[in-house]
Amino acid sequence: MVNISLLGNRLTGPIPKELGNISTLVSFTVEFNQLSGVLPHELGNLYSIERMLLTSNKFTGEIPERFAKLTTLKDFRIGDNNFTGTIPKLIRNWSNLNKLVIQASGMSGPIPPEIGVLAKVSDLRISDMNGTETTFPPLSNMTDLKTLERCKLQQIKWKNSRQLS
Fold first, then answer.
1. Residue 99: strand, helix, or coil
2. Are 90 and 67 in contact (CB under 8 A)?
3. Could you tell me if 46 and 71 are in contact, meaning their C-beta atoms sit under 8 angstroms apart?
4. Which helix (H) or strand (E) holds 59?
5. Residue 20 C-alpha from the chain's centroid
6. What is the pLDDT of residues 43-88, one digit of tens each?
7. How far apart are CA 83 and CA 86, in angstroms?
8. What angle is formed at CA 133 by the lines to CA 129 and CA 136, rounded to 5 degrees?
9. Cis peptide before 110 (omega within 30 of 0)
10. Structure pTM?
11. CA distances from 22 to 19, 31, 67, 74, 117 (A)
């Protein structure tokens, strides 16, 4: 199996941990459902995964540390959920990432400087993070960055970032 797409099916309950055993899975889309609970750390075993789209559910907890192993990931979207904690520093391992969407995810600042090492990111959307102040890290390594959208953070401070045109 290469693709699982369960977009907008009103599914409820947690993601089964057994999905982490599908070693051939490249795309996992469960956006616009009512799935809940923590993300199973077994999803960190999806060594071929390129797309993980989890937007608009009721997921809670933090991003599992085992997700550091998802080095083939190109598109990761977790907006409109109830996650806790901060954006994990493990994202520095996602060197193939092109798109990152963390809008109204439930997470808090600060945005880790590790985001700035993701040189292949062309679409970065981070907004509506909890907390009173968030510092946006330098983006000078993101030479492919084309979209920096809706960075509505309660208070935003930019550090040494290049101008976007």
1. strand
2. yes
3. no
4. strand 58-61
5. 17
6. 999 999 999 999 999 999 999 999 999 999 999 999 999 999 988 9
7. 9
8. 75
9. yes
10. 0.87
11. 6, 19, 15, 18, 29
